[in-house]
Structure formats: structure tokens, C-alpha cells
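=== RUN LOG ===
request id: a7f3
mode: sequence -> structure
chains: 1
length: 287
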Amino acid sequence: MSVEAAPTLWPELMDGELSLRHVDAGGIRTRVIEAGDGPPLVLLHGTGGHAEAYGRNVKRLSEHFRVIVYDMVGHGWTDAPPVPYTLDVYAEHLHNLLDVLGLEKVHLSGESLGGWVAAWVAAHHPNRVDKLVLTTPGNITSKPETMAKIRESTMKAVAEASNETVRARLEWLFSPATRHLVSDELVAVRYAIYTKPGAEAAMRNILVLQEPETRARYAWDAEWVGRIAAETLIIWTSDDPTGTYDEGELLQSWLPGSRLVNIDDTGHWPQWERPAEFERLHLEFLT
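=== RESULT ===
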């Protein structure tokens, strides 16, 4: 069986119409990529990530939705104010971004940390969320060893930034079957972010949610998750390094009426590892 070549970002995007700009979201200069004219769909990346995490999906999803991908506060090329980035900070930033874009209610789809933020917004600002997709939302049970792994590997990739440390951080997210899809270009994008002035200080503020005491204030639990009224799809995978399928089942049990699906031979980034399946699930659920 032939092995798929590592994807490159520009050929994935060049055939569609999109805009890349910065907007002021509550005083935070925020990088936003937009494409399409349909119902608004906002995509949220994970810890230490950036909008390019959805580079393989924008074109095809924009055939059906107004796709909005942004760098969350402290991430990518969005401003990084010197405060700890907790879920309420991320939620306020998203709330302000929707306001400046003139969007009252949207579909939210988040991967990893982005799923956590999307769920938090759906629970605390239900009027802003239509349907909700939680993709590998990660470490639902707050396992200390997983938090430690994320802290250590991420800080190493920034404090000792090199092609090797950045690649190792990305490859940890992928299934053994898909690690060849971590392209040199993807590594170069993340290396550029991790070597920006102030990157190490920003990453320390990003990683506060991987500290047990801070995380305890925002940890997934049945009480706040049970407030989510939005129709919800949970996408899990067979090889997610941050959480096993039974954690997906636990999350589903807290969300009556939610749907849980699994993608085989896939790690923490199904949107990049299995884009066709990721997009098909979104289309079936959201339309």
C-alpha cells in the first residue's frame, strides 16, 4: 500500500478564496483566517498550536461554511498579554472575537485545548453556540503524567527550539501510522512561532492549565459539562496519547444525547491525519 506524502500547506489552500488578517478582539491583536460564505464555523486549535493546524480542512469545509480559524490568545501570531491563559481568558477572547466579526451564534469545533475552550463557552455562554464538535479534547480525567508530558515536551520545544525538538513535540501527537505526515513545512511554521521574542514567557502562561492546582479550577466534570445544551459530537481516536476511548465514553455520559465516534489509526490531530474523515463527520453532523 502506498504511503501518503507529507502535505504542504499552500497547495491545500491555494485553490480557494480566503482572507488572512488581524483584528482587535477586546484589545488583543488576533490573527484570523476566513473562507466561505455559509453558516459560521469556528475552529479552535490545541495547546501551543496555531491556525495552521486546520490547514488541510479550510478549503473543503469552506464549500459549506463560513470557516473562521484563529490563533487563540497567547498562541501563534496573536498577542500574548502577560497573564495566565485560563479557560475564562480564552472564552472572553473568543466572545470578543465573535463580537468584532459580527457573529451572534456559531458552530464551534475545537481540538484538544480548543475542545475544552469550546465546551466551556457552550456551558457558560450558550447563546453563542449552535452546534458543538469536541475533537480529542484530551485528558478528561486530568492524569498527572499526561500533564507532565505536555509541560515538559512543550517547554523543551520552546526553550531548546530546534527542528528536532519541535518535530518531536508534533510527532508525539500523531499515531505511529501517520507520523510521516508531520511535514518539514509544519515544523518550520511552529519553529517560527516558538522562536518569536517572548515565546518562552507566553508558553509558560499557556501551560498553566497543565499545572494541577490551576487545572483543578477548570477541570472537566459532570457539573459544568452537564450545562451544555448544544447538540454535540465527540470525535475520539484509537491512538490519542492524551486520553483513551473510555474517557470519551465518560465525557459522553456527562452530555446526554451527544454522539461519540472513533477514528482508527489516528492520534491527537485527526483534522490533519485523516482530513477526509474529519470533514465528513463535520458535514454529516452540522448540516
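=== NOTES ===
The radius of gyration is 17 Å.
The first helix runs from residue 9 to 13.
=== END ===
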